[in-house]
């Protein structure tokens, strides 16, 4: 099987993305790594961190070869303005978006087999008047598909019905169409990408105690229960709606492959409590493989040498596994 070629975007240039990308280049990997970034930024950060890395221009015409520790292959895109570690600069927002588009395109063109993203600061991109709610939504728009965000540790998977949405908009967003699309993609991609034959999906309610039979909210009775009943007719294995406060207890988790939360902060605090620093963010529903770190830009740690690259390493491990499974599927 050819070695996968994985494209990585370091994300916000003032954050820890460049630091953790440099760190993972020190290790061997069973894939080729291509970084879409400004090579001068990476060279400056390597100097600040006192890391010796040979930064070269990527050559995508050659067959892929295993990553050599201490090297970094870069698909170059120039920053608009030299970064200052730890300090956001709106002038570089368009650069961040350009790196994402170029990296996604390399995957769509089949030149790379998976995309791994470093952290971006959503606010600075919006401050530059570029609407951006997250990589998940951006990549779905770019690829013309519907995304499902799922984060995973070694022991827990949590998917989200709604992603980067103000809390006041969540109830209206939970519609039968949204639940049917989300659950169908979740079921399909857990089968296809994760080789789980019949995924067992625990679905949270929206309200306290899943609405307490309509006494604490009606979204369960009006929308969630009928949607789950309809989806069960397609042989999707669904439990719920479960009260979210006990959906993450051991007896429930051991009977399920994934928990579907209705909104970002219903699902992710538990996931990050269980494994912040080693978890992986995976976008389902895309025509490309995309994984990401579980943390943000940590501006306070940029260029200090204190940023941990463990989540990026987990995201890369997952991307390699998913790319290998996909290649195997295509060749058999
Ligand atoms: N994948 C992504 O692009 C992604 C993910 C989460 C948050 N964000 C964005 O990042 C920005 C900052 O978010 P935040 O402050 O809520 O979260 P954060 O993850 O940047 O920081 C939370 C805390 O964790 C620490 N931390 C984060 N990553 C670390 C690492 N690798 N090693 C050691 N310590 C680490 C930080 O120093 C901070 O104390 C926001 O704009 C947010 O939207 C982006
Ligand atoms: N919701 C993610 C988290 O909390 O880790 C994070 O904001 C990144 O999302 P994107 O991958 O869509 O940028």
From TrEMBL:
Gene3D superfamilies: Isopropylmalate Dehydrogenase. InterPro entries: PdxA (IPR037510), PdxA_fam (IPR005255). One of its GO terms (cellular component) is cytoplasm. Its cofactor is Zn(2+); Mg(2+); Co(2+). Substrate binds at residues 135-136, 272, 281, 290. It holds the Pfam family PdxA. The keyword Magnesium applies. It is found in: Cytoplasm. SUPFAM superfamilies: Isocitrate/Isopropylmalate dehydrogenase-like (SSF53659). It catalyses: 4-(phosphooxy)-L-threonine + NAD(+) = 3-amino-2-oxopropyl phosphate + CO2 + NADH. One of its GO terms (molecular function) is magnesium ion binding. Pathway: Cofactor biosynthesis; pyridoxine 5'-phosphate biosynthesis; pyridoxine 5'-phosphate from D-erythrose 4-phosphate: step 4/5. Binds 1 divalent metal cation per subunit. Can use ions such as Zn(2+), Mg(2+) or Co(2+). Transmembrane segments: none annotated. A divalent metal cation binds at residues 164, 209, 264. Its EC number is 1.1.1.262. The keyword Metal-binding applies. Belongs to the PdxA family. The active site is located at the dimer interface. Homodimer. Catalyzes the NAD(P)-dependent oxidation of 4-(phosphooxy)-L-threonine (HTP) into 2-amino-3-oxo-4-(phosphooxy)butyric acid which spontaneously decarboxylates to form 3-amino-2-oxopropyl phosphate (AHAP). HAMAP family: PdxA. This is 4-hydroxythreonine-4-phosphate dehydrogenase. It comes from Cycloclasticus zancles 78-ME. The gene is pdxA.
